[in-house]
Design brief:
- By secondary structure, the chain is α/β, with parallel strands linked by helices.
- 38% of the residues lie in helices and 16% in strands.
- Strands 1, 2, 3, 4, 5, 6, 7, 8 and 9 form a nine-stranded mixed beta sheet that branches.
- Strand 4, helix 9 and strand 5 form a beta-alpha-beta unit.
- The longest helix is centred in the N-terminal third of the chain and has 21 residues.
- It starts with 9 loop residues before the first helix and ends with a strand.
């Protein structure tokens, strides 16, 4: 197990405010997790009263990530992962999926949320053959992320970069693209980028609910069009079926025909 004391201090000194709802805890609640408070449940229930489909989006996003990681380990031979914007641990975290298939896999998680740091021990539990680490850093500081991740990952070997529901927290679209490009540029050929985010132009009820949430004073999350999400993969080789609703990305064999939901993502290889 990697020593969580390696995580930088700033987040540890931040007070976890349990009097106001928090997006990571609300997402955890929708995923069926237990790391949330009554205020988060109330906010989550208020959102689902307007748009019940948010629970499907949250859980489909997690299933998409699980299928991505499975592909990366089994078919692409990836053994290193950089998961930026980790969120609170629930079921099938990146290291659990990867190390179940390849115990030697190495995973670095990145988040700047003090509550995620408080749960870092759960994230840092690793198989004896592999390694996990946690970095307290903001997605808007890719240079710090890369420098610290290099203590655990070998950037001369392919890496699976995961940006799951994190780029929507970067309000400026050009900045979000620049962050993704900076992280990908630092990775060698054969690395892969996994991105999924809430999409605009698919479900107007979802858009109204999210816009109302953003206007409530909560930390905003910006929905983007499918074309905008697709541009995060510019210069990379998209894995079939490309950027699609997350339910439609390589569904499990025998699964019912998936519905289209307003969460799109894809996986691409760096040439």
């Amino acid at each position: 197990m990697t020593d969580p004391a390696r995580a930088p201090e700033p987040a540890m000194r931040q007070k976890i405010d349990t009097s106001v709802p928090h997006s990571a805890r609300i997402w955890n609640y929708w995923l069926g997790g237990k790391d949330n408070y009554p205020v988060d449940e109330q906010a989550g229930d208020a959102y689902t009263a307007v748009f019940p489909g948010i629970v499907t989006i949250a859980r489909s996003s997690r299933a998409f990530l699980r299928r991505n990681i499975t592909y990366l380990v089994r078919e692409a031979g990836i053994r290193q992962f950089l998961d930026v914007g980790t969120g609170l641990p629930t079921a099938d975290n990146t290291h659990e999926v990867a190390q179940r298939l390849a115990p030697e896999a190495r995973i670095v998680y990145v988040d700047n949320d003090p509550m995620v740091l408080a749960h870092a021990r759960a994230l840092l539990f690793s198989s004896p053959e592999g390694a996990t680490a946690y970095i307290d850093a903001d997605v808007t500081d890719p240079d710090r992320i890369l420098a610290t991740a290099a203590e655990t990952l070998d950037f001369d070997r392919p890496v699976g970069l995961i940006l799951s529901n994190i780029l929507g927290h970067v309000g400026d679209y050009a900045q979000a693209r620049s962050i993704a490009a900076r992280l990908v540029d630092a990775l060698p050929s054969g690395s892969h980028l996994s991105v999924n985010d809430g999409s605009r132009g698919v479900d107007p009820v979802f858009e109204r609910a999210q816009d109302a949430y953003n206007n409530s004073g909560a930390v905003p999350y910006n929905l983007r069009t499918v074309d905008e999400i697709t541009t995060f993969f510019d210069g990379l080789e998209l894995i079939e079926p490309g950027v699609v609703s997350v339910t439609q990305w390589r569904p499990e064999p025998g699964a019912p025909t998936p519905e289209v939901i307003a969460e799109h993502g894809g996986l691409a290889r760096k040439p």
